[in-house]
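Board notes (copied after class):
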Amino acid sequence: MAELLSEAVVQEQAKQLKDWKVEGQELKVTKEFSNFVEAIDFVNKIVEPAEKAGHHPDLSISYNKVTISLTTHDAGGLTAKDFEMAKELSQLG
């Protein structure tokens, strides 16, 4: 099982991620697109890296906005896996 990160490590890691925020035991970002089709295209780009890592984000779609939430459910909070996935997903656009 992945090891929970200390609050100090979580805050330090979060500083390295543009636009992501720590909310409780989750790492979140909301991406805004021109329309629904672009939002769904972005969501589809998440599938491959999530499957490859075996680490799947929670997603919320509201027309042209996609909110990504990362947490390691079986560890009960944030682990290195969440920050690695956030870095990878940030490269998608």
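Comment from the instructor: The helical segments are 7-15, 36-53, 80-90. Strands lie at 21-23, 26-32, 58-62, 65-70.
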